[in-house]
Amino acid sequence: MQKKTFITTPIYYANGNPHIGHAATTVVADVLARSLKLQGVEVFFSTGLDEHGQKNQKVIEERKITAKVYHDEIRKKFVDLFKVLNIEYDDFIQTTEKRHIDVVQGVLAKLHKEGKFFKKEDGGLYCEGCELFLEDDQLDAEGMCKDHKRKPTLIKEENYYFNLSKHADWLTKLLNKEGFFTETYKKELLNMIKEGLPDLCISRPKSRVWHGIELPFDTDYVTYVWFDALLNYLTVLGYPNDFTKPKQEFWDTVIHFMAKEIIKPHGIFWPIMLREMGVNPPHKEFVHGFITAVDGSKMSKSLGTGLDPSVAIEQVGAEGLRWVLTKGIQANDVGMDYQSIVNTFNTDLANIIGNAFFRIYSMAKKSFKDSKVPKAAFDARQKKFIDLIKKDVAEILPTGKDINETSQYARSLLDVFRNINVYIDHTAPWKLENVDKKNQELLAILEALKLAFSYAAPVIPQAAAKVKEAIGKCGTVLKDVEPLFIRIK
Length: 489
Description:
Layout: E1 4-13, H1 20-38, E2 42-50, H2 54-63, H3 67-84, E3 91-94, H4 98-113, E4 117-127, E5 132-133, E6 153-162, H5 168-175, H6 183-194, E7 200-201, E8 203-205, E9 214-215, E10 218-223, H7 225-229, H8 232-235, H9 245-251, E11 255-259, H10 263-277, E12 284-288, E13 291-292, H11 309-328, E14 334-335, H12 338-367, H13 380-394, H14 405-427, H15 435-456, H16 461-471
Parallel strand pairs: 1-2, 1-11, 2-3, 11-12, 13-14
Antiparallel strand pairs: 4-5, 4-6, 6-7, 8-10, 9-10
Helix pairs in contact: 1-11, 5-6, 11-12, 11-14, 12-14, 12-15, 13-14, 13-15, 14-15, 15-16
């Protein structure tokens, strides 16, 4: 395994409150980051906000406030949510920061000097929601944007462009590199290349979009929002002036997490931009599906099928939502509503994981003399049980292989706790009349639980910390504890 890894979420578009999709991507990235740290890997983890572009501009104009006031307000909402969800990021970047503006303008100036941009009058059907000129395959039968279900606007204007097509063969080879891009979505990108890559418009005229980073070579234009946003991954590593060898080692092992709606900018624009800049392409790009309504339909606030992460946290707690998202998020779409979140919490955390700890801990506190943890003297059967749990947990931590690893990790953890519960039911320590034998059985189970929770820490860190503190070592006096997860009625 590599010694260093750089993990990123996309920087989230700052035109509204954080939603369940933002929470999902960030939690899954955080779980992988924590898992790698447990395995001795040095991790740098970044997230943040994409603050430029027409959609943000529209909100600022409608509310008649300054951009700074608006972005400070949105930043607080995201930071507060991530704090509640116990996200351990190393950098939270905003694209309106000077450090990022300097990077974007530096890259633009370099590529312009090298003749990589050209100006022409062109246009097409423009979707404000996508902030993209749409191709025919991005429209439905009624001519509406497939993603935003709105009719795009016909726009024709003079802009700066960037050639993508000359990189088609190179990009095809990169996408076919094993493990580089989530297999479920790779074919979609390869089809885009086969159909021909149009020139990328990298500017927007200020007469239409003023909220962006000004082109250093033409003050009548701002930078296209994706050409701006994607560079955040290098900004947080100090590119270009502080892009030292240690930071380049992080870059060379970077894993980008994203939802499937942004595969084109990440899978097409970004690698080509990097190649023209003389920077290595990303190491891996992990793509997960959407969280849909339970019937598979797209979530809709107006239909009452949208999910607010704050409401979910009120119902099942931050640890509960972390668990549900880790278990559910994978390459394919997953159906979810508030009731299914509660059901998963009850089944997994309350009934299986929380119950295993609480009933044994409570029993041990009553059985141990003066509630003190006695010296362990395990027999062969108990040692075998502990060794099996140790073997099971050592094999389940995600290593950064693919997007589905974290979901499988949660499911495997659940199996470990099920096995502990089976052992508890089989040995039935509450039936043992010999106090010493009973205590040793309880000690063996507590040891297994301590192991299991230590490996569950990337998903449920607070519960794992409580268990570690509660169980203690030989001579520790067990204190009264509350159930980790209380079943919701």
